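User: Hi! Is it possible to get a structure for several chains at once, not just one? Here's what I have:
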Amino acid sequence: AQSVTQLDSQVPVFEEAPVELRCNYSSSVSVYLFWYVQYPNQGLQLLLKYLSGSTLVKGINGFEAEFNKSQTSFHLRKPSVHISDTAEYFCAVSGYGAQKLVFGQGTRLTINP
Amino acid sequence: EAGVAQSPRYKIIEKRQSVAFWCNPISGHATLYWYQQILGQGPKLLIQFQNNGVVDDSQLPKDRFSAERLKGVDSTLKIQPAKLEDSAVYLCASSLGGEGVTGELFFGEGSRLTVL
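Assistant: Yes, the chains can be modeled jointly so their relative placement is included. Here is the combined structure:
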């Protein structure tokens, strides 16, 4: 079985500052990793995913994430945030061949002007 | 293309009443998921369908929750009788399907249930 831990429930940052949202996973098999974003009163949408290959993955809206197998982490980063990035961010994991996507508890990103 | 449609968006009921949520996935998507998202928590998978067959319902409280996907297209999730702890947003998602979760899940806007 797989599990995900998002280490910060809330992250406040100033506009144009860099941000990192942390995600650690647990699995006995190889994994696929995902970051989803949920804007207020909307459904979740995919930001980026890691399936294989390069450990640095680029997504939409200037976000990127790095897969670190030894540290079982998949942290999300953006070099300069905008007010419009205010949202809830969810890390998710699926094991190879598994039919199930498991989500973390989410990190609320708040951008202050 | 049209996204995942869910209805109703909001529902308020009293405990012990029943409620039903409807989901129409993206056309051609074989896999359909129902997630429960309690305030302050991540989505928790309730049930997953591949076409009209159940792939995983291990976290569905079967004494009160039921779901069906007739004809492998739209789906209905029912709660009867509702409890206070069922207050949550019920998210429907769909994907092309296939072996393992590697592709993108497309989510609807959710149905927010409040049980009084």
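Chain A has a mean pLDDT of 93. Chain A touches chain B at residues 4, 6, 9, 32, 41-46, 49, 51, 90, 94-106 (CB under 8 Å).

User: Great, thank you!
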